[in-house]
Amino acid sequence: MLNASTRTAALYDRVRRVIPPIEWPAFASDIDAILDLKQQRNAVILAHNYQTPEIFHCVADIVGDSLALARKAMSTEADVIVLAGVHFMAETAKLLNPQKTVLIPDLHAGCSLADSITAEDIRLLRQRYPGVPVVSYVNTSAEVKAESDICCTSGNAKAVVESLGVPRVIMLPDEYLAQNIAAQTDVEIIAWKGHCEVHERFTPADIRELRESHPGVTVLAHPECPPDVVAEADFSGSTAAMSDYVERQRPPRVVLMTECSMSDNVALQHPEVEFIRPCNLCPHMKRITLANIRAALEQNRNVVTIEPGIVRRARLAVERMLAV
């Protein structure tokens, strides 16, 4: 009988440029088991762009940014959804698929943005700014979404804000995303003080040092970065927009100012592009591993549940976003 490394050899070909051969056997048994479990349970794995290559390229069925995962979650015919990402993403998948089983491999895979605001905070904001609509980033809990008028992602935030047809909105919780969108629109944006613990660490000095040490490098920045970082970059966009930029422009040398697994995943698709990696890791995304994906499927572990009343209201906010 063939061993797991042999059975998964074709998958290793996808990631051999970032995973040394000596490490593959440690991944192969879990990958082999996960592929079998997906068939047994009619399960699908959704993986965010920040997942490590052995997850993103070897066991995931659907990959992308939070908007892409939200859209594609609605069309899956699987009975079980495993969300290889953080908790708010698993909640969003559950909101859009309330009759399906949604699993999160690690319940502690959180998000500094989601943790920065509560439903009570929104109720207080509404008292302070009566009649001003609330736009909540998808990087929020279901309870926060349920208190919001509409959701947005980094990829569609400007379109969502302008779709409301009002002179000002409350946009939360990411202060930097709100400031970066405010610079692109005439709509007045009232921001919250939440920050992504990965993107807030980038500075303009980082970019200047990269340009000095890597002449000709193209700098792409996520809009969760501070505005002065975005101003120093050659392009700013969501993880999907950054990936599309590399696909379309094929810069000889590029740096992605975002979570560093993103660079690994895009680099595997573009061997002709040199990727410079300023490695800021998301500790929450890195809680997701092949081992706990396997355990979740084997044991039906960490089933995502949301109170029905919250589901109805939060789903409406997400559906309004998807309609923009």
TrEMBL record:
Its main location: cytoplasm. Iminosuccinate binds at H48, S66, Y137, V138, N139, S154, H222, P223, E224, T239. [4Fe-4S] cluster binds at C111, C196, C282. It is found in: Cytoplasm. Its EC number is 2.5.1.72. HAMAP family: NadA_type2. Belongs to the quinolinate synthase family. Type 2 subfamily. Catalyzes the condensation of iminoaspartate with dihydroxyacetone phosphate to form quinolinate. This is Quinolinate synthase.
